[in-house]
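Thread: "does anyone have the structure for this chain?"

Original post by V.I.:
We have the sequence but no experimental structure in hand. Need at least a predicted one for the grant figures.
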Amino acid sequence: MEQTTTAAEWRAPDPRKIDLDREVGWITTAVLSLGWFFGTVIFLFAGDLPLMIDVGMAALWIPFTIGIALLSYRWPPVEHRHTRYRIDEQLIRIERGVFWKASIAVPRSRVQHLDVTQGPLERRHGLATLAIYTAGTEYSQVSLPGLSHEIA
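Reply from O.Q.:
Generated one for you, tokens below.
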């Protein structure tokens, strides 16, 4: 007797997730850069630090901002290439990670319910996060961000 199991294909998150992650990166860059700037100004005028440290903080502000901005632009496509998921008759499998790989396999028989959430930036890009809730304690909630709202 031959078993008929459909070998589901591996899928990547929606490519729009790259744009979403870049946008989040730009916001993070702006917040960190402004924090560094205002921290430098506060220490410059109100702190008792030596002038050399104040000058060093001011001099490192621009390279710090450029570095974070470059990382915010270059990292999302790399992360996207290393994230995939597959849903078949027995398992929901999610693999992600560039340096530290994570592979999560959730038996479909243990799925209790699913939630689809959208933050304001996700909604703007037409994306959603699928939250899978299972019976058990470890990994009782597994999320899969970056899906188009229709697929999630």
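V.I.: this helps a lot. The CA atoms of residues 108 and 139 lie 14 Å apart.
O.Q.: and DSSP finds three helices and six strands in the chain.
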